[in-house]
Backbone:
């Protein structure tokens, strides 16, 4: 019975994620981060407060107590 000649599997082949997908994930993360920072700095007071709390959550540190967070901000015109 004839035997098929097959090559051994290539063990040096990399099993990484496609570079295009990596770029997409990094781009999405940077867009999300820049949106939150822009909202924290330039958004309305309520949204800005929420964005600053989200930034604290991302730092993996506890958020400041509610009475510490209350600051007086000047209204923008």
Residues:
């Amino acid at each position: 019975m004839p035997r098929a000649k097959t090559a051994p599997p290539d063990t040096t082949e990399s099993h990484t994620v496609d570079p295009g997908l990596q770029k997409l994930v990094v781009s999405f993360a940077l867009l999300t981060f820049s949106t939150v920072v822009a909202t924290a700095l330039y958004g309305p007071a309520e949204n800005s407060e929420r964005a600053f709390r989200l930034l604290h959550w991302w730092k993996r540190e506890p958020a400041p107590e509610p009475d510490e967070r209350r600051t007086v901000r000047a209204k923008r015109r």
In short: Residues 15 and 72 are 53 Å apart (CA to CA). The radius of gyration is 25 Å. The chain has three helices and no strands. Helices lie at 19-42, 45-58, 66-69.
